[in-house]
Amino acid sequence: MNEEYKNKWISQLKKGTLPFIVLSVLSRNTYYGYELINEIKKLTDIVVAEGTLYPLLVRLKNENLVSHSWVEQESGIPRKYYLLTEEGKGTLNSMKNYWTYMNNTIQSI
Fold it and tell me: What confidence tens digit (pLDDT) does each residue in 76-92 have?
C-alpha cells in the first residue's frame, strides 16, 4: 500500500468536503467559530484547525453562503456567530443532491 498517496488523497477529500460539512452543520444552528469546530468534531470526529476554519468562513461569507452577527457576552468580548444565508441553504441543498448522486455512483461500481 502506498501510504503517502493514501494520506494525500484523504487530505484532499477532507479539504474538498469541508465546505459541505460546515454548511451542513450551520444548517442546524448558528455557532461562533470555536463552537463550530467542536460541533464538527462531535458530529463527525473530524478535527478542524482554527487556521483552516476561519479562512473557509471568510470565503463562504464572500460567496454570500454564510453571514455573521456579533453577539455581546455577559463577560468577555463579543462573539461572531455564523449562520446560513438563503443562498447558502440553496447551495447546500444542491451539494446534498450531488453528494447523493456521487455516493450512488460509487456504490454502483
Answer: 889 999 999 999 999 99
